[in-house]
Specification:
Helices cover 43% and strands 14% of the residues. It is α/β, with parallel strands linked by helices and 326 residues long. The chain folds into two domains: 264 residues, TIM Barrel (Alpha-Beta Barrel); 39 residues, no CATH class. Helix 2 runs antiparallel to helix 10 and helix 7 packs across helix 8. The termini are far apart.
């Protein structure tokens, strides 16, 4: 596929998606106070961000409301307290995991909800269940995306088949999701080429959600963008599970569209995310996350390592080797 865009031009198809509350919520069990969420919403509006993801539509039958903050569940009334009627250009997103969302009950018709897009997260082996959710949400009036997680673990043939099947569904956006932060820019480019080729055939868009285990989230995001990917996920101060994500302030500073402004996001870092760090909420590049990225495995062992305040990196490297090769 031909290179799309250049460093000095504006691509009108680009959509910036702020995933701070959703991915960042994995760092503090979604316990953000309303002031933070409201300030972030207002900052995103001022910064020209296109979508703001508030959190998950998680099943209250599976997850206890007492164990998490409210953005694990994203009740429509809670979102409306923040955005009102949302008379702005910013669209509201939530994520719904296959098998962990009571979508028929908890996702109400779009005309009754402040939400604009449902981002459906699936693994390659649960595509049929994902399509059921896509069709239900589309009938209710929502935009939808399909976020195929852990793509670095999936076979190319399986990804192609899944995308061809999904192409026949009403989904709007295919997402490349580097769940383990193990993808390198060359691989991001090849994935983007493959996703975009199939998406173009079916009239879909493509997005990318990158993790920063090897400090490549920003690089992978802009590399994928050059191949035609248009939905770009990022988080304020890179806040997200484990090593975090592509930093929103980096992405906005890179894009040449004058509608995007960095200053409002810097204010959020200054007034909010730095305080979260001081309070002990942890995220960002660290050696254990680098190692899980290099081993192409879930960051769960690294998250435990960091919580235990360990520093025996060499031992952890051997532990991971044994886990992966046992």
């Amino acid at each position: 596929m031909a290179h799309k865009g250049d460093l000095l031009s504006v691509r009108q198809d680009i959509r910036v998606v702020d995933a701070t509350i959703r991915d960042g919520g994995l760092c503090n069990d979604f316990r953000f106070d309303d002031k933070f969420v409201k300030d972030l919403y207002n900052a995103n509006v001022k910064a020209g961000v296109d979508y703001m993801e508030f959190g998950y539509k998680a099943s209250k039958e599976i997850f206890s409301e007492s164990d998490f903050g409210k953005w694990k569940f994203c009740n429509d009334s809670d979102i409306r307290k923040i955005v009102g009627d949302n008379k702005t250009n910013l669209k509201i997103a939530v994520m719904a995991d296959v098998g962990r969302t009571d979508f028929e009950k908890d996702i109400i018709p779009k005309k009754e909800s402040p939400i604009d897009i449902i981002r459906i997260a699936t693994y390659i082996n649960t595509i049929p269940a994902a399509i059921e959710m896509i069709e239900d949400c589309a009938k209710k009036g929502y935009e939808t995306s399909i976020n195929i997680m852990a793509v670095s673990k999936a076979r190319t043939e399986d990804i192609k088949l899944a995308l061809e099947i999904l192409g026949k569904s009403p989904v709007n956006v295919f997402y490349i999701v580097d769940s383990y932060g193990s993808v390198y820019p060359e691989e991001a480019r090849k994935l983007a080429e493959m996703y975009c080729e199939i998406a173009d055939k079916h009239g879909k868009s493509v997005g990318i959600h990158a993790h920063n285990n090897q400090q490549l989230a920003f690089a992978n995001t802009i590399e994928a963008m050059t191949q035609g990917v248009s939905y770009l996920d990022a988080t304020v101060d890179g806040m997200g599970r484990g090593a975090g994500n592509c930093a929103l302030e980096l992405l906005l500073g890179f894009l040449k569209n004058p509608k995007y402004k960095v200053a409002p996001i810097l204010k959020i870092i200054e007034e909010h995310t730095q305080k979260l760090r001081e309070q002990g909420v942890k995220w960002g590049y660290d050696i254990p996350y680098m190692l899980t990225g290099q081993f192409n495995t879930h960051p769960r062992p690294a998250i435990s390592f960091v919580k235990e305040d360990r520093r025996d990196y060499s031992k952890f490297n051997h532990e991971l080797f044994d886990i992966i090769n046992s």
